[in-house]
Amino acid sequence: MNILIIGAGQSGRGFIPQYIPKDWRIVFVDKNVELISELEDKKNYKIEYYNSNKHKIIQLNAAYTWDNTNVDCEIKEADYIAICVGEQNFDDVVTELRPRLANKKSNTLIVTFENGTNPASKFEKKLNLSGFMLNISITQAAIFCTTSNDGLIDIKSQDIHYLPYDRERVDHEILLENATPIMKFTSFLERKIFTYNCLSAVISYLGYLKGYKILSDAANDVDILKTIDIFSNNLNPALAIYFNVSINDQNLFFNQAMKKFQDPFCIDTIARNCRDVNRKLGLSERLFGPINLIEKYGYNADILFDVVAAACLYEKQTFNTNSIDMLLEATQLGSDNIWIEKSINKYNLMINHK
After folding, report:
1. Which CATH number is 2-183's, of 3.10.450.50, 3.40.50.720, 3.40.50.2000, 3.30.1360.180?
2. Which residues, in sequence order, are CB contacts of 298 under 8 Å at separation 6+?
3. Rounded CA gap, 127 and 251, in Å?
4. Distance CA 293, CA 345 (A)
5. Do residues 158 and 146 touch, judged by C-beta distance below 8 A?
6. Same topology for domains 2-183 and 187-353, yes or no?
7. Which residues pair with 108 in a beta bridge?
8. What is the per-residue pLDDT across 173-213, written as a single tens digit (0 to 9) for each?
9. Which residues in the chain belong to E strands, given as ranges?
10. What is residue 354's predicted lDDT score, i.e. its pLDDT?
C-alpha cells in the first residue's frame, strides 16, 4: 500500500504515521523546504512518547515539495492520501492536487485529519471531482492525540491507540491500525470540538492572559480551575441535551479532556493552541458553537465571552491585528449583535485593565 501524507507538520508526521502498517510506502508532501529537505535527507525520524521510555522510528520513502516532478507519480500511485493541513489551507492543497488526480487509474481513499466541523465535506466541495472518471472516496478522521516538535523533524507524542473515522463515507473499513469506525461521525466530531477544543480554548486564552507558556501549567492554575468548574456546569448539561447523551457520559467526556490538558508530561504550548484565531471564532466553531447551545438550553455562557475577548486580545498583541474587524469578519455578525456587543465589552475591559 502507498500512502501520501499532504502536510508534514506535527500531526502529519507525528500522529498519522503511528497508525500506518510497517510494510506501507510513506511519502510526505509539504511546502516547507527546510523540513522536506531534512526528511528527504535522513529518510527517518523518531517519535518519543511523553512520560515513557518508548519510542518509534518512522521510516519514510520520500519527501517532496509541490514543485518536485515526482509528486505527480506519487499521487498517481497512492492508495491513501492523507490531508493533514488546517481548513484554511484547503484551497492551496486543492490547487495542487486536483489537476494531478486526472492521471490516477487506481482506487484512492482521501482522508482529512482536521478537527473542524465536517472537514471532509468542505474538502470534497472544494475538490469538485464532478466530471472526473475516478473512483475516489473522501472520509475524515479525528485527532485526539497531542504532538509537539522535538527538533526539526523528531516528534514527541501521547501514546494513544485510537483513530476514529467516518464509516458512513466509505464502503469498506480503512486499513490503518487502530482505526475505529464511527457512525454519525459529524455529530461525534462536533461533540469533540465543543468539548475538547472548547476546553482547550478556555485554558489557552485565559492562560495567555496570565502569562503561561505551557498548556498544562494553565490547566492546573487555581483561578482558571475555578472558572472551568463554573464553565463545565453550564456547558455539559447543554451538550448532553443537544447530543442526546446522559449527563454522566458528557461529564466523563469532559473530564477525559481535562485530564489530558492537565498532564504535565504532555508538553503542549499555549501559542500552538491560541493560533488561527480567525478560524476559531467562526459561528460553528469551538467558542460560538457552544455559546449558541448553552444559551439555547437556558444556561449561562458569560465565561465564553471572556474567552472570545481574550482570543481577540491575543490576536491584537501577537499580530497587531484589528481584533474587532477580525471578530466581525469571522462571525459574519453585525456590530449590534448581542454576542458581538458582549465580546467587545469584555475586550474593552481587558484592554483598559492592561
Report:
1. 3.40.50.720
2. none
3. 38
4. 21
5. yes
6. no
7. 136
8. 999 999 999 999 999 999 999 999 999 999 999 999 999 99
9. 2-6, 25-29, 44-49, 55-59, 62-64, 80-83, 108-113, 136-141, 147-149, 155-157, 163-166, 179-182
10. 59
CA angle (128 as vertex; 126, 133 as ends), nearest 5: 150
**Helix residue ranges per DSSP H, 263-301:** 270-274, 277-280, 288-296
DSSP secondary structure letters along 27-95? EEE-S-HHHHHHHHHHSEEEEEETTSS-EEEEE-SEEE-TTSTHHHHHHHH-SEEEE-S-GGGHHHHHH
Alpha-carbon torsion, ordered 210, 211, 217, 219, to 10 deg: 40
β-pairing verdict for 55-59 and 155-157: unpaired
pLDDT digits (tens, 9 = 90+) for 238-256: 999 999 999 999 999 999 9
What global pTM score does this model have? Answer: 0.86
Q: What is the overall mean pLDDT for the chain?
A: 94
d(CA 263, CA 47): 18
Domain boundaries, the chain: 2-183, 187-353
Per-residue pLDDT tens digits for 76-135: 999 999 999 999 999 999 999 999 998 777 789 999 998 878 899 999 999 988 877 678
Largest CA distance in the chain: 61
Superfamily (CATH) of domain 187-353: N-(1-d-carboxylethyl)-l-norvaline Dehydrogenase; domain 2 (1.10.1040.10)
Q: How far apart are CA 225 and CA 272, in angstroms?
A: 21
pLDDT at 129: 83
Report whether pLDDT(309) > 90. Answer: yes
